[in-house]
Amino acid sequence: IFFESEQSVVAGLPPEIKARLSANENPFGPSAKAKKAIVEAMDKSYQYPFSNFKELFNKIAIFEGVKPEQIMVDAGSSPILRAAAMHFTKEGGNIITGDPSYADLPSTAEDYGAEIIQVPLTAEFKLDLDAMEKKVNDQTKLVYICNPNNPTATVVDTQKLKDFVERVSTKVPVFIDEAYIDYLEDPQSVTLISAIKKGQNVIVARTFSKLYGFAGLRVGYAIAQPEMIETLGRYTNGAMSVSATSLMAAIASYQDREFLDDAKQKTFASKEFLYKTLKNEGYNYIPSAANFVMFPIKMEGKKFVGEMMKRGVSVRNWEFKNQHFCRVSIGTLPEMQAFADAFKQIS
Ligand code: PLP
């Protein structure tokens, strides 16, 4: 059932690619402060990074209003998603997720023998929280909510999600993947860290890979109840998992509003250009809350991706609700121009 991962798609890209729009990366990052911190960190990088972890825990703890022992940091959020998949499904059971949604955690759980219950999105391409809640049964080990959702870039209603989480988390843990939340106007009003602060059984995963532009530097984190952090930590390399240079870069750019707002604004400008291109060619799209856009295509998905690739543009395809879709990540304006040039030839 599952689609190719972001990793397997970009790993095969030829070096002469004009526009790499297949892994939801942010070409406007990392920030100048992050780059400077990496250079400065080099001299001390013969040391193990234990104190760097502490410094980053403390920064996140202060900003989010949680305790440092409620935080784990790892090499991106992927190891945290995998830790949760392994822990919750090592004795079987099922995991509930959207269809389509980000496949990494559920597909890891499937590898470990869990059943995946995929719940189709609503007509607005949002996670169907009511339908997901109905699927929870006595074999359910975890509910996975990706908000904003990858690959549709849609967000669920915040109050509806908060109510859902309050009820469902009394039965099973709820894992909220907030990889793209930084692209929203006011992430602090949307994040489910608020539920963790109320004592609910919720895990929130975040990453520096997206708006911070750290996909290659590898820093991500999770916030949960202290016992949950301790449990998930057993499945990771803990304070050996991220390089001091990457940690220093994360510390230097965490909540750097000037950089983040600028990257967001550039992303929006490129997205507007993409919307116009699609409209001019007679295509609809799903309005996007993140740095990628999903739109229905008029060609078989794999063929479309192949035709774009022949023209030096890498995108991805999905098929659901009896329709082929293309997901295009938002790049620089020249990259979006390369997309537009290729798209006009085949649309
Ligand atoms: N979660 C979502 C929704 C993603 O789209 C991705 C990557 O594309 C990840 C998590 C994992 O990213 P990383 O391991 O770089 O934090």
From TrEMBL:
It comes from the Bacteria. One of its GO terms (molecular function) is transaminase activity. Residues 18-342 form the Aminotransferase class I/classII large domain. Keywords: Aminotransferase, Pyridoxal phosphate, Transferase. CDD domains: AAT_like. The keyword Transferase applies. The keyword Endoplasmic reticulum does not apply. PANTHER family: HISTIDINOL-PHOSPHATE AMINOTRANSFERASE, HISTIDINOL-PHOSPHATE AMINOTRANSFERASE 2. Belongs to the class-II pyridoxal-phosphate-dependent aminotransferase family. Histidinol-phosphate aminotransferase subfamily. This is Aminotransferase class I/classII large domain-containing protein. The lineage of its organism: Bacteria, Pseudomonadati, Bacteroidota, Sphingobacteriia, Sphingobacteriales.
